[in-house]
């Protein structure tokens, strides 16, 4: 078992190994160990140019036989160089309780003082490791769910203000307008508010992307061109048997339009789209201390189903 030096890009073999490790860990734990952005970073190959608006994350790997063709990745950590830095760690289920996770966490803490570490699902082993290293919870990210079919699945009617209309996102036309409203809507958000054109393009190129599920609400009042007031970006992942999961991916309202009921309206529009896709359940993620959003989602029938916890050293 040997830690490899941290790097901005994984080698193709390592990228494939980490991707397979993530699948094994997800099947074992029932929760995905890495965020979507980290998975995109894992896939980025060494010969791909770094976009000018991107800040590459850092990869840390533990392998059984480093440098060899048949080397197997036993553990992986990713550090996002944000302010403060944030990290995620995953260990092969067959090699846990052998010091792999602790070695990765120790390296992350030493190289990135003040780092905050995500524990997706907040599983008992993660809580024990955090406690052993003196880490304490500093943020909760709730996953919430509500039914789209059967009892308790009724959705309210959608009432848009006069002069407002909804349409699907148009690739090649709406990127900059959406990025501007997204940044304004999530100015205080740790991740969503700093999404770049590269981040958006990466997601547009994902197999799950569907512009018809990326709903834009525009204000057509006034003499000028329509103005983007709010949006609901849904995410539907599928298998060969059809859609498997539906997510309220991002809901945003331009601050100039807040207080007019657009948040609820665009949320319901997206839920109706997910139901039309044949999904039985909708999920979403929201910060546990975002009381206005939690109240809105509770009123729409969402209940907490899982929680991700961010840990940090006391005082960090």
From TrEMBL:
Question: Where, in this chain's numbering, is acetyl-CoA 1 bound?
Answer: 89-91
Q: Locate the transmembrane regions by residue number.
A: none
Query: Care to name a GO molecular-function term for this sequence?
Result: mycothiol synthase activity
Q: Which keywords appear in this protein's UniProt record, sorted alphabetically?
A: Acyltransferase, Repeat, Transferase
Q: What is its EC number?
A: 2.3.1.189
Residues annotated as binding 1D-myo-inositol 2-(L-cysteinylamino)-2-deoxy-alpha-D-glucopyranoside are 36, 191, 235, 247, 285
Q: Hey, which family's this protein in?
A: Belongs to the acetyltransferase family. MshD subfamily.
Report quaternary structure and partners: Monomer.
Task: Tell me, in a sentence or two, what this protein's role is.
Answer: Catalyzes the transfer of acetyl from acetyl-CoA to desacetylmycothiol (Cys-GlcN-Ins) to form mycothiol.
Q: Under which name does UniProt file this protein?
A: Mycothiol acetyltransferase
Organism whose genome encodes this protein: Ornithinicoccus hortensis
